[in-house]
Amino acid sequence: MSRIPFAEWAPQRALFVGFPSDPELWEDDLAPAQAEVAALVRQLSETVTVRLLASGAAAAATGRGLVPAAVLVDDIAFGDIWLRDTGPVFTGAESAVRFRFNGWGGKYDLPGDDTVGAEMAGLMSAAVDPFDFVLEGGAIEYDGGGLVLTTEQCLLNPNRNPGWTKAAAEAALGKAIGARRLVWLGDGLLNDHTDGHVDNLARFVSAGTVAVPEGGADDPNADVFDDAAARVRAAGLVAVRIPSVGAYEMDGELVPASYMNWIVANGQVVVPTYGAANDEAAVAAVARCFPRHRVTGLRADHILTGGGSFHCISQQVPESE
Predict the structure, then answer these.
(1) pLDDT tens-digit series, residues 99-144
(2) Tens of pLDDT along 135-188?
């Protein structure tokens, strides 16, 4: 059985972050998204060794010009920056597990997204255990003790592993990451092209305590949030409610903006903000969940145009084996 991944608040040896690199993918949002990622990296690098991955010499040069000299910038081919999903899950300082990646159910087939995980493991000299089923890192949330949160919408979606049942998923994750118990939430956020990744919906803030958004009457995800909180409590866990972003539109379309997509990094937490009414209240609520951490809010509007936020573009490497 593979090693159980450490909780994200455990000491970290390094933290990978993806740098927006492809002008055709990012169009007018390329430079603003790069600036947001650079601001994030500057903040993170105060407490953790950041490895910024850029795809191509031009992007790598831009990245090096925007971040502190201590940040390692690696030119590694990838499709896009969503390293939480395309990268490996590091179970130790020099160990990792990898899964098959199929472009979030066949939606986005980008060259390099199926190989960047091996490159990341190689940069850390990590031994890799491969598993022959489809799974993205953003689809699972773990507490370091074998308890895993996930959503039915994603893990049981036939576009990932056709025919998977809860029992099959539980057996697969037990073998791969030592999952002792899965807590099944229902749907994720509306219009989330990941088919409901849990890292936009519910996050551990300590062993036994899970943060879940709380939406107002005008929040199209309010019922989804309430259902998730009810399932968390039914599983015997404490549910702490965090103000939601609310209805957030870009170009007239509802997008899955979420404060839950924060990063924990060696004594600090960085929360994505969007210029929304609840930004300040949400950062304060997350700070109450992490009283021993420095909690900061940083804008992620332009990163969100690609479909995700801070947690989605990062992958931590624990300090210990």
Answers:
(1) 999 999 999 989 999 999 999 999 999 999 999 999 999 999 999 9
(2) 999 999 999 999 999 999 999 999 999 999 999 999 999 999 999 999 999 999
In angstroms, the Cα distances linking 130 to 87, 117, 194 are 12, 11, 22
Among 205, 117, 144, 176, residue whose Cα is nearest residue 5: 144
**Is there a contact between 120 and 87 (Cβ–Cβ < 8 Å)?**
yes
Place of tokens 């539980």: 170
Give CA–CA dist 211/39, Å, rounded. Answer: 25
By three-state DSSP, how is residue 297 classified?
A: strand
Which SS3 state, helix, strand or coil, does residue 283 take? helix
Task: Spell out the alpha helix ranges (H) of 79-238.
Answer: 83-86, 103-106, 116-123, 152-155, 166-177, 222-234
Strand partners for 142: 148
- Rounded Cα gap, residues 186 and 232, in angstroms: 11
What number of other Cβ atoms are within 10 A of residue 155's Cβ? 28
Q: Give the integer Cα–Cα distance in Å for 46 and 65.
A: 17
Task: Decide if 261 contacts 288 (C-beta within 8 A).
Answer: no
The pTM of this model reads: 0.97
